[in-house]
């Protein structure tokens, strides 16, 4: 196993090494505008209710930022300790749905489909997969059976977006139709939860080579393919726009 240093790793830590992304997304308040507009639609009511329930009004001015931290504490209580009757008891079911969509909106624009640059800068990882597959097919790589890469949601979500997975038919907005919100494909609590994984598997079949995508141990049809076991030539054709991307040019690196 090996790992590049953060400042050299444009394959897994591309988001740390792209000046254009830092300027246009990370340091640009408009990138999270949709998320903040949605947050503002409910957070004041939640703050007031929590403050009242805890009898804080006479002693302390509870801020919306602290309520967000309380919600974060709730999520860790559940995920790490399976505790639901402490921090989580401060919130209603509707609050949970709202905070979830708020998080999804933020991830959608900062790490996914909302802003093309947010996921296009992950192009080197897709290109690495294709290079490995090509080397197997042309016979120059006959020893390596698998390559494992370990990273976080900041890498996984752009990768899923480059593959075209979990893409909703319309962009996520702060004022999207409630039915659309409830049935959206982009749910980071599902597609990028703890231990989430994505596999691209190359098969040598009697007639041709084929590729299959497996996310969290579930097979998914790669958009642009007509079969779960996608003909490799079709896969490469589908990925052609991604393979044509150049990390240095996207990031304005000379």
Report what the structure shows.
Helices cover 46% and strands 7% of the residues. The protein is an alpha+beta fold. Strands 1, 2, 3 and 4 form a 4-stranded antiparallel sheet that branches. It is elongated, with a radius of gyration of 21 Å. The protein starts with 18 loop residues before the first helix and ends with a helix.
Summarize it.
The chain has 254 residues and is an alpha+beta fold.
Write the layout of secondary structure elements.
Elements lengths: L18 H8 L6 H8 L2 H11 L10 H18 L11 H18 L5 H5 L2 H15 L15 H11 L14 H5 L5 H4 L6 E7 L4 E7 L2 E3 L9 E2 H7 L1 H4 L3 H4 L4
Helix pairs in contact: 2-5
Oligomer: single chain
Spell out the helices and strands N to C.
HHHHHHHHHHEEEEHHH
Total number of strands: 4
**What percent strand?**
5-15%
The radius of gyration computed from the alpha-carbon positions, rounded to a whole number of angstroms, is 21 Å
Shape, principal axes of CA atoms? elongated
Q: Percent range for helical residues?
A: 40-55%
Low-confidence stretches: none
* Major sheet attributes: 4 strands, antiparallel
- By helix and strand content, what is the structural category? alpha+beta
């Amino acid at each position: 196993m090996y790992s590049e240093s953060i400042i050299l790793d444009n394959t897994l830590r591309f988001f740390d090494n792209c000046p254009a992304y830092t300027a246009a997304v990370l340091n640009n308040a408009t990138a999270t505008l949709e998320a903040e507009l949605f947050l503002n639609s409910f957070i004041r009511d939640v703050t007031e209710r929590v403050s009242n329930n805890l009898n804080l009004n006479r002693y302390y001015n509870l801020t919306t930022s602290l309520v967000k931290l309380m919600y974060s504490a709730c999520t860790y209580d559940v995920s790490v300790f399976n505790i639901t009757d402490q921090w989580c008891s401060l919130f209603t079911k509707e609050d949970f749905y709202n905070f979830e969509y708020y998080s999804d909106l933020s991830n959608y624009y900062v790490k996914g489909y909302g802003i093309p640059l947010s996921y296009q800068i992950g192009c080197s990882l897709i290109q690495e997969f294709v290079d490995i597959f090509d080397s197997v097919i042309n016979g120059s790589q006959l020893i390596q059976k698998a390559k494992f890469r370990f990273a976080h949601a900041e890498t996984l979500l752009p990768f899923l977006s480059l593959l075209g997975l979990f893409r909703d038919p319309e962009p996520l907005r702060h004022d999207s139709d409630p039915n659309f919100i409830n049935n959206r494909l982009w749910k980071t609590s599902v597609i990028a939860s703890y231990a989430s994984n994505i596999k691209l598997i190359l098969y040598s079949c009697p007639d041709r080579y084929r590729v299959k995508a497996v996310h969290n141990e579930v097979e998914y049809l790669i958009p642009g393919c007509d079969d779960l076991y996608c003909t490799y030539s079709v896969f490469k054709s589908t990925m052609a726009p991604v393979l044509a991307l150049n990390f240095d040019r996207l990031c304005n690196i000379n």
